[in-house]
Please model this.
Amino acid sequence: MDLKRLRYFVAVAEEGHFGRAALRLGISQPPLSEHIQTLETQLGVKLLFRTTRAVSLTIEGEALLEHARGLLREADRCREIVHASRHKEGATLTLGLLHAFSYTFLPALLRSWFAQDPLRRVHLVEYTTTEQIGRLLEGSIDIGLVREPIYHASLRTRSLFTEPYAVAVPSEWRLERGEKLSARALDGRSMIGYPSHDLRRSTQSLFRDFFHRCNVRPSDYFEVRTMHASLALVAAGRGFSPVPRSQSALKLDGVQYRTFKETVPELSVGLAWREDKATPTLQDFIAVCERHFAAGLPGR
Model:
C-alpha cells in the first residue's frame, strides 16, 4: 500500500474537506481526489461520503484512519532511526521556517542554540506557514517557526514574540521627514500586500480597520504571494507595502522603511510541533527559544 496515499487520506479525514486538505498537503485538489479514489479502488471499499461542502468517513474509513495513523507513525520512526545512525556524534533537528526569518532573527537564535552544544546539527527547510503545518503532520520536519495563530488538534504551539508593522515605500516618494510616518501620508496611494494562512491576518484584512480609523483610502490594492515580491514592486515605484518591522533589515535599492506614528497592527511569531514527537532535542530547542526571546525580539 502506498504510504503517500495513506497520508493523503489521513489529511482529508482530519480536515473533513478536500480543499483544506489540499492546502495542508501543498498540492492541488484534483490529484488529491484521484489518489483517494485509487486507494478506494485498491481496497475495494468506499472510505468517504462526499458532499459539496464537506466529507465524512464511512465505517471502513474510520477503521482505516486509526490503522493508517499507526502505520505513518512507524514510517516516521524509521526515518528518525536512519537519521540518528548517520549523525550519532550530535543531535539533528529539522527546522521549518519562513524565508524572511533567515536574514532577521534566525542567525542570533541559532548562535544561542549551538552555544549549548557545538555538535548539534540543524537542517533548515523553507516553507510557508501553511506548508509547515502539512510537513509537521506528516513528520518531515521536527518543529516550525511560524506566523501565528495555528489551530490544529495534533499540533502544540508556543508564542515567541510579537512585533508591529512598519511600511516599505519607494525611495523616490517625497514624504514627510522623520523616522515616523503618519498613515495619512499614504492616502490615495496603491497598497501591495500578501496573503496569510489565516485570512484574518492578511495585510489587507489587518490594515482595513487601521486605515479606516486613520481616514486613509488606498487608491488600489495588489496582492502577491510573498513579501519579497511585494518589496520588488515597491522598489519599482508601484506602491507601498506593510511589512513586519524586523524585515527592514533587508536593504533593497529603491526601498525605504518607515515606522508609523499611530498604533499599528501587530503579528506574532511562534513555534509549532507535533504533540507526539516532543523528543529531548526538540524540548531543548524550545527552551533555548524561550530564553532567547524572553525580552521580546532582540534589537527592537
The CA atoms of residues 23 and 131 lie 8 Å apart.
